[in-house]
């Protein structure tokens, strides 16, 4: 039985990804709603009631179901996608409540690495596609959650590299269709046939459709591609916003009166991104929930969430990776609080002594430590 499908996990992640994409993809770029969702699912499991209810609304599942989905995804990895989730903590510097938060078995759980260790984790978990961890890890860092996703797939047949710099497709290399969607109306799609179980579909809508709606339509198409029912396009008999139709008659063998011959043009592209997720759906609540583990003397805690992502689409295939991270740091400055202020004014307006004494600074002259080198007496009234 496919627990992910039966529990509605795919639908929940898809709904979240639509919101996430709308937030981070306001210009050409790449991101991973799944990478973000994995961390929110992990945080929801330990959150206090008010935060947990808010996170459940965002992730689209109850906290126990979200935890179970996270565990299931790690336990049953996709052959074309590598995935990792980690929790690193300076447990001795956190409150006692932190010890009560257990994570699923396959979540990497351990002490905080240094920056070099975090960077190495990002490289290793993304097969070198991402070189640096998206957060700074230093002496004030107390808790970090991270997810990493990566894929490298090849097309079953390379796409044609055209003189204009684009890539050409035909029915032997890709699936082509025109599909009606709720979000963006009628869209055109091209999905090259890959050598793995990962579909990479390009979706184009009418030029007047807002970007967020086109992104949502792409998620609809993705759902159709993953549905047990075959994706069925609408009949195409005339030109549209991104396609043209030309007809001719010729003699062929077969049993059908109409033969469709599809071809396409797609661009080759590459994007590298660094997203600030502080205002992304769910992250303010999640970060606030984690901040409670910082002891009172180190509050207010500083929190941050970021995602580094890269993707490339070429004649031979597709590769992509994303590392998403949430971090909690102790306050770098003393906390402001209400105190008693006692004003004391000292006036040295009468004769007084001044002493010059040597101290050991660790730069030589240790034998001088504590020796009074100069002594003076000062009378402010005696000038000159």
Essential attributes:
three-stranded antiparallel sheet, elongated, 384 residues, Antithrombin, Chain I, domain 2, alpha+beta, 2 domains, six-stranded mixed sheet
Structural features, described:
This protein has 384 residues and is of the alpha+beta class. Residues 1-7, 353-361 and 368-376 have low confidence and may be disordered. α2 packs across α3 and α2 packs antiparallel against α7. The termini are far apart. The protein has two domains: 3-154 and 270-329, Antithrombin, subunit I, domain 2 (Antithrombin, Chain I, domain 2); 166-267, no CATH class. The protein has a six-stranded mixed beta sheet with strand order 2-1-3-12-11-10, with helices on one face. Strands 4-5-9 form a three-stranded antiparallel beta sheet, with no helix packed on it. The chain has helices at 3-6, 9-24, 33-44, 49-59, 63-75, 115-125, 211-225, 283-291, and strands at 82-89, 108-111, 141-154, 160-161, 166-170, 174-181, 185-192, 202-204, 263-267, 269-276, 302-313, 317-329, 352-357, 372-378. The protein is elongated and about 120 Å long. 33% of the residues are buried. The protein contains eight helices and 14 strands.
